[in-house]
Amino acid sequence: MSFTYPTNEKLKSQKHIDLLFSEGKSVSKYPLRLVFAPVVLENDEKIKIGVSVSKKHFKNAVNRNHYKRLLRECYRLNKKMLVDYLEKPYAIMFFYQSKETMSFKEMNEKTVKLFEKFIAEIKK
Length: 124
Fold this sequence. Notes:
It is an enzyme of class 3 (hydrolase). Belongs to the RnpA family. By secondary structure, this protein is an alpha+beta fold. The protein contains three helices and four strands. It has one domain (7-114): Ribosomal Protein S5, domain 2 (2-Layer Sandwich), CATH 3.30.230.10. 44% of the residues lie in helices and 21% in strands. Strands 1-2-4-3 form a four-stranded mixed sheet. It is globular and about 35 Å long.
């Protein structure tokens, strides 16, 4: 498995995003939150993921973009955890929900715990 975040894994479909916010479930590990919903995807894809950082908490686009880059990197490094356990395709939105700043190391540790919580939730 390659540690990449290719275009075909990026959540871009408005239909899938609307589905996430209307019918999606959520797990969180402060300050990270994951909203997910099973979807039908093409080409044997297993996952579509998007990242978001609130403008309410980070007014400057530079800071929002920095945390979005960190979230994508945390996903990229730990996606093997998710892909190995997924039996059906999911659309996932990954949020950073705090004004507090975090180092990459802390964020990566929280991401691993969040992904473990997500796996436990879908196994129910």
